[in-house]
Amino acid sequence: METEICASLAGSFDAVCVEDLNLKGMAGGLHLGKGVHDNGYGLFLSMLEYKLEERGKYLIKVDRYFASSKICSVCGKKKEELSLADRIYYCECGNRMDRDVNAAVNIMNEGKRIFAECA
Ligand SMILES: [Zn+2]
C-alpha cells in the first residue's frame, strides 16, 4: 500500500516537501515523537525519495525543528505556545485553519525556500 501511495505522489507532483527525521535522536532512544512512528516514516520517506528520483523529481526535507506548527501560514507570525490539543490554528490576522494543514503549508513554503537556495 505504501508503494502505491509513493508511486501516486511521485506521479502527481514534481517535488514533495516533508518534515525530516532526527536519526540521532532515534539512535539515542529518545522519544521525540510528534505523533509519527519514526521508523515507519523513515522507510516511507526512503521509498518516496526513490520513486521521485526515478522520475527525475525531488524530495525536499525540512528540518523537523522548523516550527511548522507554530507559524501562521498566512502572515508568518509565530505563536509561542501551541498545545497538541489545539487542533485548529487561530491567528490574530484572521487565519483559522486545521492545525495539520497550516503546518503542511509551512513545510511546503520552507521546502520551496530550500529548493530555491539549491537551484
Ligand atoms: Zn496570521
Automatic annotation (TrEMBL):
Annotated GO MF terms: DNA binding
Cross-referenced Pfam families: Cas12f1-like_TNB (PF07282)
Segments forming domain Cas12f1-like TNB: 41-107
Keyword list, A-Z: DNA-binding
InterPro entries cross-referenced by the UniProt entry: Cas12f1-like_TNB (IPR010095)
Highest taxon of source: Bacteria
Keyword DNA-binding tagged: yes
Protein name: Transposase DNA-binding domain protein
Lineage, opening ranks: Bacteria, Bacillati, Bacillota, Clostridia, Lachnospirales
